[in-house]
């Protein structure tokens, strides 16, 4: 297992280019199962989660070819039973259930487990497919979904913590080949849902309303191959913006979609970070002290849960008290105890973290627990005095393309220690 050795205290300076969005690419790859024709997806980040989704599709019989940042998928002949162990390992793989059920009339997919950020049930995915007429059974750890042909229906997908992103995608994909019209109410509005709908429409689907809480899908007989370029990763963009602010740097971020990041950019400005926007380019800089801000994570277009951990580091460096409330995943505070090793003062009170900021951070060995927590630890290491070793960086390799190379180009002293 690799780790990162970071010698902190240097401001990040220079230019960084944003990769395609992992959370768009994963369901879009699954959508390629809806047709026997060839699909080409561009701006695909080189990430372990993406390669893993490729393996899952191959295990179902699809041909998958990676070439630079392009992946070509052809699912001419596929089966509906996924490899139990392979699918169980990545939660995002649940989004093959909708396309397989819709195209083949039957699918068996292992239930993804919980993970360190929370219980992460899939009841809403199953409720949606059942509303379209699929008979759902859970046996021996598998979800078995069957329907001769799915039928359009009205589906309410609001859950305890709001809408579901992958659940909306799953039901939307299933409904493309259903008989009649499906209306998803309380649909997730995330840009990744819109990106998936754009790809499905390019395949011949008839979807309107993606990006709003009501999505309407008129079923068609079949879908055809399509080409698509994934949107830039808004979470990677936010991570570099916060890293620039945390290290008192000046960073120009290229190839982003700032309109997907209003909530984050607004909070950064409120905290005293300079944010200049011009088209797809963002210039982030910071001079002097920051102000504490309170943040609550919410479904899009609110502040993303995937940026909560990184924002906490910035607040730990900011004199005063900031309150960060997590409303999407109940246990997403694993980074707090690791940040404490670097000297951060953070107390958990129910769904909130009370950050007493302003103490300088000092390097220490820390353990990455999940993807975004790892990114937060890297930012903390860059801002801290001395050396920080972030262990178990395979978590970060799941979702950030070449983050160590990109940070080195910005002047960071970060080294990958292989096998440590
Ligand atoms: N939920 C249910 N029932 C369901 C599905 C979800 O109660 O059937 C709950 C969840 O437990 C959670 C809330 O609804 O409390 C929202 O979960 P959602 O379903 O939206 O999450 P997801 O679709 O499984 C995606 C991203 C996550 C991101 C969340 C929220 C992918 C592959 N994953 O997960 O990304 O945090 O949306 O925006 O798209 C990450 O990239 O680090 C990551 C965890």
Please state the overall shape, judged from the principal axes of the Cα atoms.
globular
Q: How far do the termini sit from each other?
A: 6 Å
Determine Rg (CA atoms, Å).
21 Å
User: What small molecules accompany the polymer chains?
Assistant: uridine-diphosphate-2(N-acetylglucosaminyl) butyric acid
Instruction: Look at the structure and give the mean pLDDT.
Output: 96
The main sheet comes to:
4 strands, mixed
Classify the beta-strand content into a percent band. 25-35%
Number of helices: 14
**Uncertain segments of ≥5 residues (pLDDT<50)?**
none
Helical fraction: 25-40%
Helix/strand structural class: alpha+beta
| Total number of beta strands | 23
Question: Taking strands numbered 1, 2, ... along the chain, how are they ordered across the largest sheet?
Answer: 21-22-1-23
Characterization of the model:
Helix 10 (308-316) links the parallel strand 17 (295-296) and strand 18 (320-325). Strands 21-22-1-23 form a four-stranded mixed β-sheet, covered by helices on one side. A four-stranded mixed β-sheet has the order 2-14-16-15. The mean pLDDT is 96. With 420 residues, the chain is of the alpha+beta class. The longest helix has 13 residues, at 234-246. It has helices at 22-31, 48-59, 84-88, 97-104, 123-131, 165-176, 191-202, 234-246, 262-270, 308-316, 335-341, 371-383, 394-397, 403-409, and strands spanning 3-7, 13-17, 38-42, 63-67, 70-74, 106-110, 135-139, 142-146, 154-156, 181-185, 206-208, 214-218, 227-229, 250-254, 274-278, 281-285, 295-296, 320-325, 345-349, 352-357, 365-367, 387-391, 413-417. The chain is 31% helix and 25% strand. It is globular. Bound molecules: uridine-diphosphate-2(N-acetylglucosaminyl) butyric acid. Residues 23, 26, 91-92, 118, 120-125, 159-161, 164-167, 188, 305-306, 328-329, 371-372, 399 line the site of uridine-diphosphate-2(N-acetylglucosaminyl) butyric acid.
């Amino acid at each position: 297992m690799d780790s990162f050795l970071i010698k902190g205290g240097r401001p990040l300076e220079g230019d960084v280019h944003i990769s395609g969005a992992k959370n768009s690419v994963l369901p879009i790859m699954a959508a390629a199962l809806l047709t026997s024709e060839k699909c080409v997806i561009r701006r695909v980040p080189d990430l372990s989660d993406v390669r893993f989704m490729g393996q899952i599709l191959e295990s179902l019989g699809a041909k998958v070819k990676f070439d630079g940042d392009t992946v070509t998928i052809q699912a001419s002949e596929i089966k509906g039973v996924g490899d139990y162990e392979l699918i169980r390992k990545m939660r995002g793989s649940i989004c093959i259930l909708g396309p397989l059920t819709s195209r083949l009339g039957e699918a068996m997919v292992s239930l993804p487990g919980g993970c360190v950020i929370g219980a992460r049930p899939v009841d809403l995915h199953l409720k949606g497919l059942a509303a379209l007429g699929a008979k759902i059974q859970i046996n021996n750890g598998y979800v078995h979904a069957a329907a001769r042909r799915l039928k359009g229906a009205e589906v309410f997908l609001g859950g305890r913590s709001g809408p579901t992103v992958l659940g909306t995608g799953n039901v939307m994909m299933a409904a493309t080949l259903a008989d009649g019209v499906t209306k998803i109410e309380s649909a997730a509005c995330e840009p990744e849902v819109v990106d998936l709908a754009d790809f499905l429409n390019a395949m011949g689907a008839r979807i309107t309303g993606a990006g709003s809480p009501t999505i309407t899908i008129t079923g068609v007989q079949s879908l055809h191959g399509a080409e698509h370029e994934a949107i830039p990763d808004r979470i990677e963009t936010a991570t570099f913006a916060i890293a620039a602010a945390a290290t008192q740097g000046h960073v120009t971020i290229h190839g982003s979609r700032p309109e997907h990041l209003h909530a984050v950019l607004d909070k950064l400005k409120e905290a005293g970070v300079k944010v200049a926007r011009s088209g797809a380019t963002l210039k982030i800089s910071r001079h002097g002290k920051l102000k504490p801000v309170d943040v609550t994570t919410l479904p899009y277009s609110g502040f993303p849960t995937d940026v909560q951990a990184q924002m906490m580091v910035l607040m730990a460096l900011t004199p005063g008290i900031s309150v960060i409330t997590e409303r999407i995943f109940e246990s997403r505070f694993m980074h707090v105890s690791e940040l404490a090793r670097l000297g951060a003062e953070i107390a958990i009170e129910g769904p909130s973290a009370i950050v007493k900021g302003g103490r300088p951070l000092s390097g220490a060995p820390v353990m990455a627990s999940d993807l975004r927590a790892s990114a937060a630890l890297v930012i903390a290491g860059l801002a801290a005095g001395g050396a920080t070793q972030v262990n178990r960086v395979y978590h970060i390799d799941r979702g950030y393309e070449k983050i160590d190379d990109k940070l080195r180009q910005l002047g960071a002293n970060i080294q990958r220690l292989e096998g440590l």
